[in-house]
Amino acid sequence: MSVSYGGDSIVFADGSVNASGFIGNRNRIINGAMVVDQRYAGSGNTLVTTTETFVVDRFVGYKDGGVITSGQSSVAPAGFTNSISWSVGTGYSATSGQYTFLKQHIEGFNTADLGLGTVDAKTITLSFWVRASVTGTYSGSFTNSAANRGYAWTYTINSANTWEYKTITVPGDTSGTWVGATNGIGLRVYWDQGSGTGARTTAGTWQTGTYTGVTGTTAISATTGATFYITGVQLERGSTASSFEYRSYGAELQLCQRYYEKSFPIGTVPADNIVTSAPNTTQFLISSYAGSSYISQNFNFQVSKRASPTMSFYSNYAINGTNGTAGVWKSYVAGVWTNHSSTASNQSTNTGFMVAGSFTSGGTSFQSYFSAGEWVASAEL
Q1: CA-CA distance, 247 to 268, in Å (whole number)?
Q2: 97 partner at 20 to 30 Å CA-CA among 18, 23, 178, 362?
Q3: Is residue 112 part of a domain?
Q4: Residue 339 within a domain
Q5: pLDDT tens across 155-170, in order?
Q6: % of the chain residues with pLDDT over 70
Q7: Residues 290 and 237 in one domain
Q8: Whole-model pTM?
């Protein structure tokens, strides 16, 4: 690869421009090639009405009606292996105050250099590959953390069921209140899938309000049987889209794990009493006595979290071939596995957590016992 330098930009051999002035980490979007899907392992998900739902890591889907299934797909353009699919089982026409969208929240630490809300606000460019069964003019928006300041934009699907490359360039906002270098939401990126009129506005200007798209644009979620796919999503500083920044799967997974991590194998959907999943088992010494005992153990995350996460705990069938109680770990006590008599609790920080619970031991002091189970840590924006 050859590059030439001019000012604070880099021009690649293919003519693309990286205006940020550095080669690595151009893309502020995480999992833009949709390769990481820790929650569903490619199985997809039916969106729950009025509930924001992750469809792959870092990307959220939302609907106020109809039946929509969304998740990781193997339908992809040349150079990519995955996309997000959006399939409309039953279409619905949103009313004025209703929403339907895909989005990603970008952390403030990853947008601070854009200077949004200051006189030095930088131009940004969004690029992506998209395919839809319905042609027409589509829309999306950028908004701030409070979702009260935004810029709506459009793009066109020219041919049905054909992959097309789109770019949107937007001048940086010099007004409004924006989150700087913090772990809060620095920027929201929306793809409007059919929101109502109250959620749409005019295109091409920064304005006050909560909007996901542009008035009069295509509402794909209104068409039963319609499909929509997106991948290769990149957001970068500058006025020209550069070629998609591929990161290794391991690097992309670690970026995702800052917001969501699980003890389950990557290809296993988190659930209680999974037969094939290897238990997250740790041996440690506890003090016990005839009657009741209390057991606890500290665990470190593979990746430091954005903030102290919300923990969810799962029992594991694979430990001893018997079902456990949902949300409760087991301990190996006096030669047998037994459920904690209370649901596992935690004291989590951004680096790790403590799991704890009580059980009936019947043992003597200072015996070595095992504790085992699975967990999920979520620190999403």
Answers
A1: 23
A2: 178
A3: yes
A4: yes
A5: 999 999 999 999 999 9
A6: 81
A7: no
A8: 0.91
